Amino acid sequence: MINPAVNQPMDTREIACSIAALKAIIFDTPAATQAKIEFIKEELLAGRYQINTTHIASKLLEYAPVSEETEIA
Questions:
Q1: CA quadruple 15, 16, 22, 23: dihedral sign
Q2: Residues 48, 40: contact at Cβ < 8 Å?
Q3: Rounded to an integer, what distance in angstroms lies between the CA atom of residue 59 and that of residue 53?
């Protein structure tokens, strides 16, 4: 992929960072956030929204890793 601003090739990492930045801008605006909430609510009610428990668990472990001393209830 070519960066049109400087007519230079873009690497995959640069593209991923650009996409992540755009997603943050889009989903962090109040209107987009509300629209996203409404979409998820509608999908849940219709039974079409799939919750990825593996992804949720991996993100939880990423922020609060379990050690040998951690007590699991």
A1: positive
A2: no
A3: 10
